[in-house]
Amino acid sequence: MDFGRLITAMVTPFDGEGEINWEATSRLVDYLIEEQKSAALVVCGTTGESPTLTDKEKLKLFSFVKQQAAGRCKIIAGTGSNSTRHSTELTKEAEKIGVDGVLLVVPYYNKPNQEGLYQHFSAIAAATSLPCILYNVPGRTTVSMSVATTLRLAEIPNIVATKECASVDQITWIASACPEDFHVYTGDDSAGLATLAVGGHGIISVASHVVGAQMSEMIEAFTSGNVRRAGELHRQLFPVFKGLFECPQPLPNPSAVKYALGLRGMDVGSVRLPLVSPTEEEAAFIAALLR
């Protein structure tokens, strides 16, 4: 399964009462596919505020987004958690819905060792025929999956990719030794071009909500051999990549990108507690980024 080079980790639109806004979700899916050139969408990942969504909401979102996309892009369901049993059951339900793959985050809070991580992911993969994408994000989980564990899991046929957020160094080591058909993605927009340069496949992105078309152009420039143009585009986009997370002090994802979408005429509402909306200062900073 090739999910493409630019994947958007989609926000979950909410209404004024904090409930899922299905009309806005429909518009957002069309916008991300047609205008921002997303090859695939991750539904109910970190950017989709998965910790505050119920399983019932997640399953309805998987089904709704799959139907709305109507084959125009791949749909990847965020079914990972820190419980192997729960992740397995949610993955099975997502498979029944017909999603194209699942994203499985490294278990958080309970701090498994490397053997525990291997057993966790291999158990979920064994319970589904869906392509599985690993997701290593130690800044959120406190545990980092090692290169050796990732490469060991990459030998399992339906574990087809990883979203790696530890470092470009780790991406480099994985890309150097993984099977040819195993794809390495970065989850850090600012590391996208570097990831491609060291043999990674693409980006699972937040910034692609608002600069996806330009990111797609950057990727196309690099893969077609126009490295100079790719570098120019990366430098132009770099303030947006960094600013959405550092505006002007670190702002939890997806507070900034939801506000940025509103500025682009795509109202997706605010975030659910315990996340909060940008302050006036942060809002002004985000608006300046998009000028």
TrEMBL record:
InterPro entries, A to Z: Aldolase_TIM, DapA, DapA-like, Schiff_base-form_aldolases_CS
Site (Part of a proton relay during catalysis): 46, 109
Catalytic activity: L-aspartate 4-semialdehyde + pyruvate = (2S,4S)-4-hydroxy-2,3,4,5-tetrahydrodipicolinate + H2O + H(+)
A molecular function (GO) term: 4-hydroxy-tetrahydrodipicolinate synthase activity
Tagged with keyword DNA damage: no
UniProt pathway annotation: Amino-acid biosynthesis; L-lysine biosynthesis via DAP pathway; (S)-tetrahydrodipicolinate from L-aspartate: step 3/4
List of residues binding pyruvate: 47, 204
The entry's keywords: Amino-acid biosynthesis, Cytoplasm, Diaminopimelate biosynthesis, Lyase, Lysine biosynthesis, Schiff base
Entry keyword Cell cycle: no
Superkingdom of source: Bacteria
Sequence similarity: Belongs to the DapA family.
Subunit structure comment from the entry: Homotetramer; dimer of dimers.
Record's protein name: 4-hydroxy-tetrahydrodipicolinate synthase
Species whose genome carries this gene: Paenibacillus silagei
